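Issue 218. Parser rejects a valid record. Input:
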Amino acid sequence: MTAPEDTLDATSDAADVAAEATDSPEFGLPPAPEGAMDDYFRLQQNLLFCTLGFTAVIFSFVWGFYSLHIALNYLIGASTGVVYLRMLAKNVGEIGRERGKVGSGHIAVFIGVMIVATQWNQLEVLPVFLGFLTYKAALISYTLWTAVLPP
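Output the parser choked on:
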């Protein structure tokens, strides 16, 4: 049977070896290719424009088929979705540069808008929620579009 001090020493030695292994260049992440961040920023911009395009088209259809009130509720949700997408893209862009964990505070934007929509009598919950999901429709459409068309 080993003494508790031996176990602590072995554990700290293993942690030191693991820390050295991850800090060394041969075990760390490989350097990013030259244009990788440019490609990522271009992807961010394309997704943002796709989301804004979807928002404009859907807003006009909702206004035409329902009312301005419902369309504005949709626009509130879609604007929140755009803010959420930008915050998410910023967090993803920082993953390789920072060693800390990626925060999940951006979900508070969604929770906040849903709380406001449920508590404020002038807002409709369903159009706000569906507006928020517009960024997901844009992501799926953009992914399918780029998978089908050659580069």
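Fixed in the parser; the record now loads. DSSP finds six helices and no strands in the chain.
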